[in-house]
Amino acid sequence: MAPPKKSKKSKKESRKLKKCRSISTVPVQPNAIDSEWWDSFRHRNSPGSSVSHDEAEEFKYFFRASRKTFDYICSLVREDLVSRPPSGLINIEGRLLSVEKQVAIALRRLASGESQVSVGAAFGVGQSTVSQVTWRFIESLEERAKQHLRWPDSGRMEVIKSRLEASFGLPNCCGAIDATHIIMTLPAVQTSDDWCDLENNYSMLLQGVVDHEMRFLDIVTGWPGGMSVSKLLKCSGFYKLCNGGERLNGNVRTLSGGLEIREYILGGIAYPLLPWLITPCESDDLTTPMSTFNAMHEAPRSLAVRAFSQLKGSWRILNKVMWRPDKRKLPSIILVCCLLHNIIIDNGDKLQPDVALSGHHDSGYGEQCCKQVDPLGRKLRENLAEALSAHGKQTSPSK
Asked: The DDE Tnp4 domain covers which part of the protein (predicted)?
């Protein structure tokens, strides 16, 4: 007698059973996750290095964040990193990568700027895993950490103004602005004069406004390096909001003598002099008040310069030549580095002093000079210079 034919249902059940058997060889359980990644990474990378033997400092050296801040970053992205299929995210021992190890891989890639091959070797994973993990992390943090980069409300702005005045003597100052170039190589088919800057590098611009703690309050990026800094400003949403009276529109300070000082930020000579953006005085024959103003302008303005040196020094992927980046994805990488910069400040982390770039953040670039002068901006600058000069006379010791 011929054997009975299998029903369609039994064939389907058989396929299900085979499928279950095939995936059961890699159980997705907590004890199958690579949870001891730090000890393994430290063993691979620390011997013979110049890194501190203090484990906490060593951790911060590699990942720019303390353990506490690192755990906070993991908490922001955890849901996204565990909810997506883990295909390919397996180390050489066959264990699934923990969220912590994925975050560590992404942070090390951004902090070191080393190749995906080098970062992979440091963690015992392949190049493709580094690429996949880093991009998943960037996409997640870009969405989950928005609260760390936003324009201050009126209460917070009053704190910023108070701290800046206490430190530098400038009343009603809300921060400082600067811009930097992110240098890259581009395929021949993507090269153009727009992306080629004045130093004959292909680059993308990043503009940032910072507060008294060098925290980014506003950034704009994605624009080609061939633009001038003043044009970048005018293309930004920040410029439109300030011009429209939606930002830097808080309380006007009335100083002794009836001098009125509105809210403003400080910028270098590459920026136009505007009613809300104050630049240094430029003249071959500066008056004493103007010279005094320039001297007092420099220190708070340099907060933005130092912030970019810290940003590029901490997240060195931004300070190395980006190899053929996807120009649509690069702004997300830049934004996430700025978010990480702010997260570290918000969590009170102190970085090693040698992390920041030793030179200027735009080394090799000469500062452009913008000649645009708005009469209202000139008037505000004159009022500031007069107020600072009068204050200096009042506080100077008698002879």
From this structure: 177-342
Mention every residue, 6+ apart, whose C-beta is less than 8 A from residue 132: 88, 89
Q: What is the DSSP string of 243-303?
A: HTTSSS-SPPEE-GGG-EE--EEE--TTS-BBTTEE-----SS--HHHHHHHHHHHHHHHH
CB-CB neighbours of 46 under 10 Å: 15
By the 10 Å C-beta count (0-12 exposed, 13-18 middle, 19+ buried), 126 is classed as middle
At 16, the amino acid letter reads K
pTM reported for the whole predicted model: 0.87
Strand 33-34 relative to strand 96-97, pairing: parallel
280 Cβ neighbours under 8 A, 6+ residues apart: 268, 269, 293, 294, 297, 298, 301
* SS3 (DSSP) at 120: helix
d(CA 298, CA 192): 36
- Cα–Cα separations (whole angstroms), residue 331 to 39, 106, 284: 33, 16, 40
Q: At residue 355, what is the residue type? A: V
- 83 vs 97: CA distance, rounded Å: 13
For 147-178, letters b (16+ CB in 10 Å) and e give ebbeebeeeebeebbeebbeebbbbbbbbbbb
* Cβ atoms of residues 332 and 142 within 8 Å: yes
Residue 82 CB neighbours (<10 A): 13
Q: What does the pLDDT look like over 50-67, one tens digit per residue?
A: 555 688 989 999 999 999
Give the DSSP H or E segment for 308.
Answer: helix 288-314
Q: What is the pLDDT of residues 165-202, one digit of tens each?
A: 999 999 999 999 999 999 999 887 677 778 999 999 99
For the four alpha carbons of 350, 355, 357 and 358, in that order, the dihedral sign comes to positive
Residue 347 near residue 389 (C-beta atoms within 8 A):
no
Is residue 178 classed as helix, strand or coil in its secondary structure? strand
Handedness of CA 357, 361, 365, 370 (dihedral sign): negative
CB atoms < 10 A from the CB of 143, how many?
Answer: 11
Which residues does 337 contact at the CB level (< 8 Å), separation at least 6? Answer: 110, 311, 314, 315, 317, 318
A 10 A CB-CB count for 51 gives: 17
Residue position matching structure tokens 């633009």: 227
Closest to 26 measured CA to CA, from 123, 99, 93:
93
